[in-house]
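Annotated sample (chain length 91).
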Amino acid sequence: MADALHDKDLQKFYEDIFAMHATPGWAAWKEEVERYREQVSDIGSISEQHSLEFRRGQRDILTWFAAQEGIMRLAYEELLSQDTANEPEAA
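Output written by the structure step:
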């Protein structure tokens, strides 16, 4: 993805994501997700298979939500490193 960050739409996407991560609303949302994730983490008392699978799905989604900030930062850093690796060397 050479020059990926020269794509204005992609650059704006990351700027908007990082701006959202800096808001009090994002911090509150992350706390709420973590609280709910803790509530659904106990699967020891579930006796029915479909309920167990449903709970596992809930945990997976909440884990994905909780990891989004880090995932976005890693993706952005990967794009930066790809762009840097694709730059021609100075003579």
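Annotation: The CA atoms of residues 8 and 14 lie 10 Å apart.
Annotation: Residues 4-41+48-85 form one domain.
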